[in-house]
Amino acid sequence: MTITCKGDDMFTIAGFVNSQFDQSVTWKDIDWVRSVWDGPLALKGILHPEDAKLAADHGVNAVIVSNHGGRQLDGVPSAIAALPDVVDAVEGRIEAILDGGVRRGNDVLKALALGAKACMIGRPFLYGLAANGGKGVSKALELLRNEIDLNLALLGRAGVGELDRTALTWVANPLGGE
After folding, report:
1. Poorest-pLDDT segment among 18-27, 86-95, 156-165
2. Catalytic residue at 48?
3. Sequence spans of domains, the chain
């Protein structure tokens, strides 16, 4: 399939990009998808706790907490900042997956400690691919795994199953005073 955009000025290109988004999608459309698909269903782009609750109410199995790289609207919260409230809102009824900002193993651990069941790691994967093809992807995954193992050890946790929000507690001055 070839997509063409006539003209190359900024307004023509912006108009083409905007035409690729359907602003009429509603929760009724999610209900329809659920009525014709009984497999796992994940909804990407959730940042607000109320939307996460609605997703669970409409039969979605997982929400992907993402601001789409912040490209769509300047000033929206980062995915990691929105994650705890989304996790709390769904109360374990559905899973939350973090998408965005994951570059290192430490980022994975932060997301898991805040309640994410998984992280999407597109950028490290693509960086490895761009740097050295399939070998670069393998190296990127090896680096992530090693960073996860090292940081778990530094946290004193035997595995990711032992992570919770206490792993992120910050004490500015544990001895008191100024």
Report:
1. 18-27
2. no
3. 27-162
